[in-house]
Each structure stands twice: as structure tokens, then as C-alpha cells.
Design a protein that fits this description.
alpha+beta; three-stranded antiparallel beta sheet; 11% strand; elongated; Phosphorylase Kinase, domain 1; 18 helices; five-stranded antiparallel beta sheet; Transferase(Phosphotransferase), domain 1; 593 residues; single chain
Length: 593
């Protein structure tokens, strides 16, 4: 064999034809300028190592290293066709049908790689080759790593990738898994349908910031709705809100290619209230925000009142921005069951004013803590609201004003002594009336509450109690994703039954324990993962067990949910429920170790 013509150039190497062998091959050769770069050399060697077991029609086959004409060459199958980047440059936006076929092939390649424990980490159009028959083949596994961190080297903890296609979690190497590749697939899908990736910027930092913080631009209206929904799901900021496995994406694309309209589960939170502190979706019937740790606010009858006292002086109107935030806070706390928040939207109350009445002391204290996070000061009063000094002062001020009005408008009555009566009674009446008007935006708690099976409600209560100890946001998000899917499944009448509710409750409990364990392991591992010691490897292997089992529970919940979306019959989910039970038992076994 000998080196033929160059067919492509990259940042660190070139691709050449290898001629004279039994089959047509390609070879990758490092540029001379990078042969002294230890990182580039290591990744060059790693590509052959991590892809040794990958044999799939949607992955470029790697045959290993060989010295040819004095050069160290990474041998691979020769793909006679353009890259996906070249196709996008020439023809994008592409028709929906062609996009579905391309995505299906890439998802199939990812599913095979992930099943073999390989995460690509640099999936992009330039790394997808298109064969003569239109088959997409994933190439360039130079930045790939094993799904198991405990058996990898220090390079696994280096931030790598191309900013246009990097998932929000990629800046934290511990958070990267197969779902990060699925986010990159969503970026590719967006580019196929529009001609450009979802986010752009003047610098890599600005692009990465956009991935973390900005919403992707909408796809053209001509794109079929279920494809648009799939792209949106792939581009979810939180890994827990994306499809949980490439195999699930393949199944969805297969149904689309069969011209079935696929109804994907909606997880954008727009149909539910959002947390007033972190502005993210609250789960219906769950008495806390699982994402930010917002104080427990639950319905609890009692004799306490919450009185807003600031910021500001007695008699001042509440700052308008705070008023709007307060309105949103009240509307976003469905578990409190407070009604009549429309008045708060229209009227600016004066300080102090009664915000809520007829609630328990614990609930009132929790409201005060939550309001403080909004920049609003409040106090709890049990009994008569005018026992609070600020309320008495407000009443005296208003009664004084009423007295002045009475003195100027009815001097005869005032001189005769009747004005004193108007002053006292009218002033106090006005003060009480003002307080009542101020408080009318929020009434006593409503009595209705979401119907959640007792087993699941008890599991959610345990989760709410345990999550304050979990400090890492991504682990909270995973528990939120498990709880969200469990609640969605529990609400389906075709799944009604104690056996199903018990398994869903077990899934929530197992996810909560796993999140706490992963959080503790991450704290022990710390940030210094550049040099991996044997002790750190032991921790990483323990972490692998937790993370992999927890993701499988999520994946089984998703399979069950998606299957029910398509086939609305209880028998359709029996096999998936058995698989879910097996994954929960496996995770519980990890917990017992």
C-alpha cells in the first residue's frame, strides 16, 4: 500500500487515499506542525482505540494505525462522497423527507456508538460523510471518549468540541454523556432545515453563552410539526428534557418516515406555571420547585396572615416592578391555591397591606422567605392584622387624612361635634377599607388540588424533603425529569392501577437517592480532575454505576410514555413496564452496595 492524493484537510491533519491494497481505503495523517503536540498525538491514537469495536453502516470504519511510506497513518474505509457540511453549503435548507433520512442514519450510528460505550463529543456536519447511495457515516472520533469515566484517562475531563454544536453542559466534563451528542444532532437538524446552526456569535464564548441561555430561533413554518417538535426536544437546555437515548430518536424518526404524525410529549413548561424565583416550570401538584429549591409552599389552613411591609415607607405605593413580580409569584404557586391575583395586576397597593389570610404559620413563614428572594419584605401576623405597628400607623395616617377631609368639607358638622365622629369612624373605616382592598387580590386558599395517586404523592414528598441537600443543578434536573415523566404517566387512564403507581413511585425514590449520591461523589471528586489518581478512579467507577443506571430509568420511562402516545391501550405498555421495573431494581441494587 502507498499514500495517494490528498482528499481533505483539517485543523490537525489531512486525509489521503491509500492505494495498492485489496480494498479502497482512506488514511488520516497528522500535519507535521502537530506531531510535537502531545494532545493531538494522543487524540490521534485514541481514535483507533475507542472506535475499535464500532462496526456499523452509519459509522466510518476504523482499521487501526499502520506505517505507510514512512508516515503513521490511521486507516479507515474510503467514503466516496461529500461531507454533510458541503451539502448544507450547496443546498440547504433541505426538504423534510431528506432531513428525516439523514437524521435517522446519524441517530443509528450514535445509538451503536453509545451502546458500545463511546461518546463522540464533536458531532457536526463536517464530521458526517455521505456515501454514494446517500448513507450518512459519522467520522472523526478523535475527541471521543468512553461513557465510563472511571476507565478513561485525564483527557476525558478536558472541555472539547466545536462551539456551534456544543451542548450547554459541555463546559462541565462530568455532565457530558450520550445526550450531549443528541443535542449536537439537534443543532445539525436545525442547520439542515435552515442553512445555519441555531446559535452564532462573534466569539466561541458568545456562542457557548447562547447555547446555555438563549432559546433557539423557530424553524420555518413549512417544516412539518412533529419534526419541528423533535428538533426542539433535542435542543432542550437540560439533558433530562431531551430524548434519553439515540434509539428513542431512531424510533421516532422511523414513524415519521412511515408518514405517521408523531405526537411528542410536550416538555416546554408553557402550559404550566413557572417558579417565581428561577422562572422554570413547576410540576403540578408538587409542593416545591425541584430545580432551584424554592421554599415549600403548600396549602395549609390556619389563622396566620402575611403582611407586605416593604421596601418603602408607610403609605408608599409598592414599586411597580415588584408589584408585577409579586403578581407572577402568586400566579405561579398553584399549590397555595390562592385566587384573585388579577386585581394585583391592575392595582398598585400601598404599604403595608395584607397579602394572604387564613393560612397556617409554617406556610406563612415559607411565603415570607420566598418573598424575600423577590426583594419584598413581609411579616407574619396571627390574629388581628392591626396588631402590627406598621398597620396601626397606616390606619392612624389614613384616619388623620379623613379628619382633614371631614374638617374642610363639613365644617358645620365638625364644629357641632359630629365631625369628630366622621373623623374617627370614617378614618378607621377608610383605613380598614384600604387594607381590605389591598388584600382583595389574594383570598383564602382554594380547596381543589391536583389528583395524584397516594404512592406517588408520598414519593414526591420524600423528594421535596431530600433535595435541599443536593447542591448540583444538573442532578436536581434529572430528578425533575423523572418526576415529570412519572406524573405524566400516572395521569393516563390506560395505566391506572396500583402496580403502575408503585413502580412510578419507586422510580422517583430511586432517582432522588441516586441524585444525592452523585452529588456527594461529585463534591468528593472536586474540580481537579486533570490528573486522575487511583482513588479518583474508584470514585468515578462508583459514579458511573449511579449515572448509567439512573439514565436507563429515565430512558425506560420515556419509552413507556412514547409508546402510550402512539398506542393508547394498557397492554401496549406491559413489556415496557417490566423493563422499567428491571431498571429500577438494578438502580436499587447499586444503592445497596
Amino acid at each position: 500500500m502507498r499514500i495517494g492524493v490528498t482528499v481533505g484537510n483539517g485543523a490537525v491533519g489531512r486525509v489521503v487515499r491509500i492505494v495498492g491494497g485489496p480494498r479502497e481505503l482512506a488514511g488520516k495523517i497528522l500535519h507535521p506542525s502537530h506531531r510535537s503536540d502531545r494532545g493531538a498525538v494522543a487524540r490521534f491514537a485514541q481514535e483507533a482505540r475507542v472506535t475499535a469495536a464500532l462496526r456499523h453502516r452509519n459509522i466510518v470504519e476504523i482499521l487501526g494505525h499502520q506505517t505507510i511510506d514512512g508516515e503513521s497513518v490511521l486507516l479507515m474505509e474510503f467514503v466516496d462522497g461529500p461531507t454533510l457540511a458541503q451539502i448544507i453549503a450547496r443546498r440547504a435548507p433541505l426538504p423534510d423527507r431528506e432531513v428525516l433520512e439523514l437524521l435517522r442514519g446519524i441517530a443509528a450510528g450514535l445509538a451503536h456508538a453509545h451502546a458500545q460505550g463511546v461518546i463522540h463529543r464533536d458531532l457536526k456536519p463536517a464530521n458526517v460523510l455521505i456515501d454514494r447511495d446517500g448513507t450518512p457515516k459519522i467520522a472523526d472520533f478523535g475527541m471521543a471518549r468512553g461513557a465510563s469515566l472511571g476507565d478513561d484517562d485525564g483527557d476525558a475531563f478536558t472541555v472539547l468540541g466545536t462551539p456551534d454544536y456544543m451542548a450547554p453542559e459541555c463546559l462541565d466534563p462530568l455532565a457530558v454523556d450520550g445526550r450531549s451528542d443528541l443535542y449536537a444532532l439537534g443543532c445539525i437538524a436545525h442547520e439542515l432545515l435552515t442553512g445555519s446552526p441555531p446559535f452564532s456569535g462573534a466569539t466561541p464564548h458568545s456562542i457557548l453563552r447562547a447555547h446555555r441561555e438563549d432559546e433557539p430561533p423557530p424553524l420555518p413554518a413549512a417544516v412539518r410539526g412533529d419534526l419541528s417538535a423533535l428538533v426542539g426536544a433535542l435542543l432542550a437546555k437540560s439533558p433530562g428534557r431531551r430524548p434519553q437515548a439515540a434509539t428513542a430518536v431512531m424510533g421516532t424518526l422511523d414513524r415519521m418516515l412511515a408518514d405517521e404524525q408523531v405526537a411528542l410529549a410536550v416538555r416546554d413548561g408553557t402550559h404550566r406555571a413557572n417558579c417565581a424565583v428561577c422562572s422554570r416550570a413547576l410540576l403540578p401538584g408538587v409542593a416545591a420547585c425541584l430545580l432551584c429549591g424554592q421554599s415549600l409552599l403548600r396549602r395549609e389552613a390556619g389563622h396566620a396572615k402575611v403582611v407586605v411591609t416593604g421596601p418603602g415607607e408607610i403609605g408608599d405605593k409598592l414599586d411597580n416592578n415588584l408589584r408585577l413580580r409579586l403578581h407572577d409569584f402568586l400566579a405561579a404557586e398553584p399549590e397555595l391555591g390562592l385566587r384573585g391575583t388579577k386585581a394585583m395586576r391592575k392595582r398598585i397597593p400601598r404599604l403595608p397591606f395584607v397579602l394572604a389570610t387564613g393560612i397556617g404559620r409554617a406556610q406563612a413563614d415559607a411565603m415570607v422567605v420566598a418573598l424575600a428572594k423577590l426583594g419584598i419584605t413581609a411579616e407574619v401576623v396571627e390574629g388581628w392584622a392591626y396588631g402590627l405597628p406598621a398597620m396601626r400607623s397606616k390606619a392612624l395616617r389614613l384616619s388623620g387624612r379623613m379628619g382633614v377631609i371631614a374638617a374642610t368639607s363639613a365644617p358645620a358638622l365638625f364644629n357641632s361635634g359630629a365631625g369628630i365622629f366622621v373623623w374617627l369612624v370614617g378614618g378607621i373605616g377608610l383605613a380598614v377599607g384600604a387594607a381590605v382592598v389591598s388584600a382583595s387580590s389574594v383570598t383564602r386558599p382554594a380547596e381543589d388540588r391536583p389528583t395524584i395517586p397516594p404512592a406517588i404523592r408520598a414519593a414526591l414528598s420524600r423528594t421535596v424533603s431530600a433535595l435541599p441537600a443536593v447542591t448540583t443543578g444538573r442532578h436536581r434536573e434529572t430528578v425533575h425529569a423523572v418526576a415529570e415523566r412519572a406524573l405524566a404517566l400516572a395521569a393516563r387512564p390506560e395505566l391506572a392501577g396500583d402496580d403502575v403507581y408503585t413502580e412510578l413511585a419507586r422510580a422517583i425514590d430511586a432517582a432522588t437517592v441516586a441524585a444525592g449520591s452523585l452529588d456527594g461523589l461529585d463534591r468528593r471528586l472536586g474540580a481537579g480532575l486533570g490528573g486522575v489518581t487511583e482513588d479518583a478512579r474508584d470514585l468515578l467507577r462508583a459514579r458511573d454505576l449511579w449515572a448509567q443506571r439512573l439514565q436507563r430509568v429515565l430512558a425506560e420511562l420515556e419509552v413507556l410514555e412514547l409508546r402510550l402516545v402512539q398506542a393508547r391501550a394498557r397492554p401496549a405498555a406491559s413489556e415496557e413496564l417490566t423493563d422499567l421495573r428491571a431498571q429500577i431494581e438494578a438502580l436499587e441494587e447499586v444503592q445497596r452496595r
